[in-house]
Amino acid sequence: MTKAIWNGKIVAESADTIVIEKNHYFPPDSIQSRYFTKTDTHTFCPWKGEASYYSLTVNGKTNLDAAWYYPEPKEAAKEIKGYVAFWKGVEVN
Question: What is the SS3 string spanning 24-78?
């Protein structure tokens, strides 16, 4: 089971993550949605497409844009549509 942990809480947990470029992408139904807030941030990957971001709020602390996902990925990355990956101090193991 792979877990994403931030500020002492498990924010996502799954046995079915997809690893791409050393990042674990968690299925949408594996995230604890109460900790996630969509932001207006977007970035672009040449082969995956446009990424959207979530901030995490746990125990009164917010980690801005700490998670990203591809709502409409390019064909080459269609397997991770809606899957969520983490950075900015979120521990994944």
Answer: EEECHHHECHHHEEEEEEEEEECCCEEEEEEEEEECCEEEEEEEEEECCCCHHHH
